[in-house]
Amino acid sequence: METPRHDPAPNPAVRRLSLYLRELEAIRRTDRRTISSKQLGESLGLSDAQVRKDLAYFGQFGHPGIGYKVEELAAQVKHILGTDKTWNVLLVGAGNLGRAMMGYRGFESKGFHLVAVFDADDAKVGQKQGPFVIQPMSELNDTVQSHHVKLAILAVPPDDAQQVGKLLVDAGVRGILNFAPVKLNLPESIAVNSVDLAVQLEQLSFQVNIPPQK
Amino acid sequence: METPRHDPAPNPAVRRLSLYLRELEAIRRTDRRTISSKQLGESLGLSDAQVRKDLAYFGQFGHPGIGYKVEELAAQVKHILGTDKTWNVLLVGAGNLGRAMMGYRGFESKGFHLVAVFDADDAKVGQKQGPFVIQPMSELNDTVQSHHVKLAILAVPPDDAQQVGKLLVDAGVRGILNFAPVKLNLPESIAVNSVDLAVQLEQLSFQVNIPPQK
DNA sequence: GGATGTGAATGCATTCACAGCA
DNA sequence: TGCTGTGAATGCATTCACATCC
Q: Which residues 4-23 in chain A have a CB closer than 7 A to strand C?
């Protein structure tokens, strides 16, 4: 039941895989049952060759003369990404961003289930936020164990991020989505994905400043 | 008063520029006045050569034998990114994510000033959220004009994103930070930066699933 | 004919390694 | 000696173009 993997798949290809899946799910809601690399590429601003090459890193999913079967490919990509089963996720930080994560509707349908929320602030601990009761950091280890949590969302102030990141790793978490504007210093084996909101705006600032280069 | 630009600067270099700035601002809070490419690289997990090459795309900021003067380089990088002046930013979408953006403390100090919040939902219009009163979409054009808004944050449901993106562009917005999980179809000249939260988790899922490759 | 999968060719980005300056 | 800036060399990623299959 293994998806065959040939070469080391380029990182950019893996990132695009998520976008392919997103698009495939959208197409699935229409009556279309099949799609070509050209069409899939166009909807995402990529070349047909790019799409084919990306997918071919992971297996032979296409049907010459036909294209890709939407349902089939979606299932394959989900399997590759590991989202054909549900991941339990925990959240640390019940501030602004944390609350948005608790309420975000886009996670469940994608295979991510938020199971618990933690905060270091005693004033917040015990408070109810939607379906969640904010837990103290002291309970972190137990929750990771009992819910087999592998992924966490880190939405704490910058000065706390490194320390909390370490706590998560020690508890057994293997991947962290980090919203704090700091580089986390963690073992190589831990997957870290950082989103710095101010950095996103800075990139826009740069691009908007430049004369539109023809 | 132009920063000299030599070659077309690689995109990845521009992305790292923001990280350099973040690090430089942190160092500025210490007593350190100067930093080498090696040190700056280490704090971000990059090679010294990478740092030097990136910076050299934009000018000669270093001092051989010494390194880079922290304050000086920070100012230069800010100028390159265009954040040495303040940008007025508007937000569309007063849902979960939108509220987090309104409360996010990381924007102001980085040169981004949130000036107004819009929502298509009549029930939300007129409500007060912190210092903001949610405005109706009909006022969007006026606000963009009167506040010379060039950048916007888009935090609306996926099905509305394309349409609202178009509205923003028509109103005169030049750059969009998009949180909706859809590809925006807008003119080439418009800068779009998309952050899909579910995609971020999917990438972690993939990495955590793979046997740690040595 | 219509579409995939894939070597070969091209184009970018990173790393090397060193000349040159403080 | 310490460190930058930069051509040259390497390594990745994308694009081309075509043999192959429905």
A: none
Query: Closest to B204 (Cβ–Cβ): which among A21, A177, A188?
Result: A177
Q: With an 8 Å Cβ cutoff, is A126 touching chain B?
A: no
Instruction: Give the pLDDT score at B210.
Output: 72
Chain B 15..74 CB hits on strand C (< 7 A) = 46-47, 49-50, 52-54, 63-66
- Band the pLDDT of B9: cuts 50, 70, 90: confident
Residues of chain A where predicted confidence (pLDDT) is lower than 70: 1-6, 211-214
Q: State the number of CA atoms in the 13 A half-sphere of B103 facing the CB.
A: 17
- Rounded to 5°, the CA angle A111-A117-A123 comes to 165
Provide mean pLDDT across the span B103-110: 97
Closest-CA distance, A109 to chain B, in angstroms, reads 9
CA distance A109 to B44: 34
* Amino acid sitting at position B22: R
Question: Which whole-number Å values give the CA distances from A71 to A51, A52, A75, B48, in the listed order?
Answer: 17, 17, 6, 46
pLDDT given for residue B214 in this prediction: 40
**What is the per-residue pLDDT for A121?**
97
Q: Is the pLDDT of residue B18 over 80?
A: yes
Place of tokens 């400043």: A209
CA atoms within 13 A on the CB side of B29: 6
The residue of chain A nearest to residue B110, with distances taken between CA atoms, is A198
Strand D contact residues in chain A (34-63), C-beta within 7 Å = 46-47, 49-50, 52-53, 63
The rounded mean pLDDT for chain A is 95
